[in-house]
Amino acid sequence: xxxxxxxxxxxxxxxxxxxxxxxxxxxxxxxxxxxxxxxxx
Amino acid sequence: xxxxxxxxxxxxxxxxxxxxxxxxxxxxxxxxxxxxxxxxxxxxxxxxxxxxxxxxxxxxxxxxxxxxxxxxxxxxxxxxxxxxxxxxxxxxxxxxxxxxxxxxxxxxxxxxxxxxxxxxxxxxxxxxxxxxxxxxxxxxxxxxxxxxxxxxxxxxxxxxxxxxxxxxxxxxxxxxxxxxxxxxxxxxxxxxxxxxxxxxxxxxxxxxxxxxxxxxxxxxxxxxxxxxxxxxxxxxxxxxxxxxxxxxxxxxxxxxxxxxxxxxxxxxxxxxxxxxx
Lengths: 41, 277
Known about the structure:
The complex is a heterodimer of chains A (41) and B (277). By secondary structure, chain A is an all-alpha fold.
């Protein structure tokens, strides 16, 4: 567990780093879509 | 939705305890169940709050106690079978909340923001303040925090601050609480690196914004309080992200804390309505 969350040293954890970044981008996009939809109601 | 959360928790527990499937599968299902339960709890609490922030603030403050309990339990060699007890205990509460909610729902009474400001902008401000708080929660210098007791005190103070944010908002007004807590936290956070009590006062003050940001988002998203709560948790996720990748110097951190806190105070003062006298 310590390994997963301690990404100060990205070396060797590149895959996790990109999963984190991609999930962040996805979350932001989904949030914008849902908020826009809700505000239109 | 709370029921789905409990079912997911049970499934993750059974996968973890009875099968040899990768722990990550169990972990993902567990996180989904946790998310469902959180949103259901927040939504139900907001719907029966009658325009008051205290109930929601007390609800979110429970998270701090949960986090520290989880951290401490993870260090022990407790039998995982015992965890089935708290999971099953949740069922009657979830049913009770879902039954009660159908009779009373009054999120329309949340009116904390100015009506002449663009709604998207208000949401952006709310989420940005959460992002900053998320960053500060992990980024504040706390060299004093070394022992288990200190860790417990740290999280309990955080929980207390979150609850007090809502209670004070109801008592003296949300705008006053927002500006006061954000600005007062600065000196305590900056000079509390080695002095526990000073740091804790700062932690308590900056935690107060939790309920305030939730109040801001619900005031805009009245028909979907679950989404409003979800947005605050997304903000926390985004705010903690830099901690994993960037390591700043002590001075760098202090400069960021001061700048961000002042920006938060200005933004909150701008979007929040004047308090009633």
